[in-house]
């Protein structure tokens, strides 16, 4: 099976990706892993990416697309199929992926979209607090410190504060919606309710993928 997994930050995409890979034995391709491997193996695109990263510049789309193409052309993909995680991030990258798959003779079979109300994600993502002395991480709702803890003993990182989380989600929604629409038009999107227990979410994904196999 050749799949994409999509979802907003905090939707549980990473957790479910690991479960899919474990159950269905597809190759997990995450953007970070792909970049690290391409640079370590000194591929043409890896060296090009490194030249941008070393200067502190953003890696342009054509290089990212090239790294994806290099990875999808490798032999393990032909045997097992893939789960692509963290790419495409923009509609332009989605079009590039269409071309890459066409050129490699690979057919995309499904897009798992973990769908969750953004307001619930704000609570999930902005609840993280850190103990000032120990650096230990807690969550106000899901993993609070001892009962009756003193809030003065904890702090929040700037990017965990609700305003920052909302902005991050807004950017992700603006970038992600055209991609979802693109794949929905091709009848590839399977929406999964993400605001459930982890095992229930995976059971729903399993039902979809069992039919696709």
Percentage beta strand? 15-25%
CATH second-level architecture: 3-Layer(aba) Sandwich
CATH names the topology as Rossmann fold
* H/E element sequence: EHEHHHHEHEHEEEHEH
- Can you give the mean pLDDT? 94
What structural category characterises the helix and strand content? alpha/beta
Most strands sheet? 5 strands, parallel
Helix content: 40-55%
Write out the strand line-up for the largest beta sheet, numbering strands in chain order. Answer: 2-3-1-4-8
Give Rg in angstroms.
Answer: 19 Å
CATH class: Alpha Beta
CATH superfamily: P-loop containing nucleotide triphosphate hydrolases
| Unreliable residue stretches | none
DSSP helix count?
9
The count of strands amounts to 8
Shape: globular
- Number of domain modules: 1
Q: Span between N and C termini? A: 7 Å
- Oligomer class: single chain
EC number: 2.7.4.3
GO molecular function, one term: AMP kinase activity
Binding site for ATP: 10-15, 128, 137-138, 196
Function: Catalyzes the reversible transfer of the terminal phosphate group between ATP and AMP. Plays an important role in cellular energy homeostasis and in adenine nucleotide metabolism.
């Amino acid at each position: 099976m050749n799949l994409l997994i999509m979802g907003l930050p905090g939707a549980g995409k990473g957790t479910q990706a690991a479960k899919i890979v474990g159950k269905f034995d597809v190759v997990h391709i995450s953007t970070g892993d792909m970049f690290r491997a391409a640079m370590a193996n000194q591929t043409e695109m890896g060296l090009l990416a490194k030249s941008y990263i070393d200067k502190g510049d953003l890696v342009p789309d054509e290089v990212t697309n090239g790294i994806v193409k290099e990875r999808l052309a490798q032999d393990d993909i032909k045997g097992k199929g893939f789960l692509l995680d963290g790419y495409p991030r923009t509609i332009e990258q989605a079009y590039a992926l269409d071309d890459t798959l066409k050129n490699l003779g690979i057919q995309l079979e499904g897009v798992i979209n973990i769908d969750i109300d953004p307001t619930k994600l704000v609570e999930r993502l902005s609840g993280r607090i850190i103990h000032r002395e120990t650096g230990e991480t807690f969550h106000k709702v899901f993993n609070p410190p001892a009962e009756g803890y003193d809030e003065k003993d904890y702090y929040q990182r700037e990017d965990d504060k609700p305003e920052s989380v909302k902005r991050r989600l807004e950017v992700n929604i603006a970038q992600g919606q055209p991609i979802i629409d693109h794949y929905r038009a091709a009848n590839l999107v399977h929406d999964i309710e993400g605001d459930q227990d982890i095992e229930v979410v995976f059971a729903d994904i399993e039902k979809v993928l069992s039919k696709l196999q």
